[in-house]
Amino acid sequence: MKSKGLLFIIGTRPELIKLFPIIDELKKRGYENYRILSTGQHKSLLESYWKLFDIEVDYELNVLNKGQSIADLTARTIQQLNNFIKEIESDFKPEYIIGQGDTTTVMVASMVAFYNGIKYAHIEAGLRSYDLAHPFPEEYNRKLVSIATDIHFAPTKEAKLNLIAEGVCEQSVDVVGNTVIDTLHYFIKSGKLDSHEFENLKLKNIGSRCVLITCHRRENHLLLENLISAVTKLANKYPEISFVWTLHPNPKVRDVILNSKVSQISNLLLVDPLSYLDLIKIMSSSSLILTDSGGIQEEAPTFKVPVLVLREKTERPEAIKLGVSKLVGMNEKEIIESFESFKPNFDDDFVNPYGEGNSSTRIVRRLIE
Description:
Elements: E1 6-10, H1 13-28, E2 34-38, H2 43-52, E3 59-60, H3 70-87, E4 96-100, H4 104-115, E5 119-123, H5 138-148, E6 151-154, H6 157-165, E7 173-175, H7 179-189, H8 192-195, E8 210-214, H9 224-237, E9 242-246, H10 251-258, E10 268-271, H11 276-284, E11 288-291, H12 294-299, E12 307-309, H13 318-322, E13 325-327, H14 332-341, H15 359-368
Parallel strand pairs: 1-2, 1-4, 2-3, 4-5, 5-6, 6-7, 8-9, 8-11, 9-10, 11-12, 12-13
Helix pairs in contact: 1-7, 1-15, 3-4, 4-5, 9-14
């Protein structure tokens, strides 16, 4: 029986982090009938990650233009990806196109798969905030992706229920956990996390008490001053705590923060985007995280680190319901009060609600067996 052709389409750093364990599982099984396409949506951010994860890209597009709008990115990606599928038909005809998450790359890949009669498998299916503005445009993207998806790999039972409520056939949905936990387990169990020395030398002098901050979502761009004010007050009040703020490369975020008063605070460190190992190492040693990142919401519970979610709504409610994360939005007062009062207890037998590290095995089994 001929093996199924699988085409992984990757555009951003989170997509690669979460697709890595699936590709690694295929390698372990000796499965060779797959190809990897990079659209270039996060080209510069991905360069070091291909090497870290020992992944060779088979095909590359160049969809990113400086300063382009979401509409321009979408149109450019549709055209390039559709042309690519036509060009490789004689060499490689995938039975499944596989995408992860809710980026423009993922949304367009599902459309192009549909237009070309190729089955689509969606990793991390069924996440919903039920508000198209939060997060923007991801909530819109993932709802569109679900329409064209043949196999929905939902990370949680709640995500599966979201899909069924929208009329998705239950037999097409597998609850598998989130593959980002597989990636964490890979680096923890291999000892690579423990042995890792910070690549960013500024992090080597971080004290034993650390608070990690990340903020990049479009809907938060105009609210950054609220976060800056809250962090400034907290850093000045708690000089014994080291605050580490990773700067997103988008100038609408980066420039605002660099030109603000936080850049002058001695116990607050502003750093460029961290490598994956630097990020999870600082995350693992943090006492608290302030973030609007979806991936960090999923990863932090593995390290039993509480999270203040800088969003009005989240499509990852499981940690909120368990009481180990809390929605605070970009409200200065709420951020400060929660920073001082939110102290969840993690039991010894606490299990990350987003997975236990075996998601990729379940996904590969469904795709190729």
